[in-house]
Model the fold of this input.
Amino acid sequence: MPIPLQFKELPPEQMLTESRDFCETLSRRRSVRDFSDRLVDREIIENAVKAAASAPSGANKQPWHFVIVENAATKKLIRKAAEAEEQEFYNGRAPQSWLEDLKVFETDEHKPFLETAPFLIAVFLQRNTIDEEGVKHKNYYMPESVGIATGMLISALHFSGLATLTHTPSPMKFLNEILERPTNEKPFMLMVTGYPAEDVTVPDIERKPFDEVASIF
Done:
């Protein structure tokens, strides 16, 4: 049965102000690779995941699962497995052109942030949903839906005052084993989050101007 829409209309002037503030805030977001080990209230992380889980999805199937990792031993296992994949990537798997594009970020196979940051959030894509009786149900537009949810997760963490890094070692099947997730789930993203290290720096890069990323008809 339909329910009333919860929508709050704003005065036009406030709408414009809010849109500008939102744009400016997100434009200041930068990926961080050096994290502090300062503790973060887990409720902040849980609220961000709840916000992400409110994302739209194909037929409302909500084809995602988020695993919040704070246990030091588990983070150590993830780092060891991720660095094994990164070792192969940086030393043979990746084409030279890809490695050249990565030079500005000064990245390599060593990923200490996977242990230093207080939280990792593993995002899984559910190829299908299995009910309590073991029956599979088809999901729709899974990559699109999980991609939207992941973008909302980044935004929620940023607005909460935390730094983030999207980490995608490939393949990531080790996450299913370490985090005890079923085979119908595919690792989609490993989100690293916490406070940035005090002396952190980021590459001096520019984002494309509006007229290169958008068209108006």
Notes: The chain has a mean pLDDT of 95.
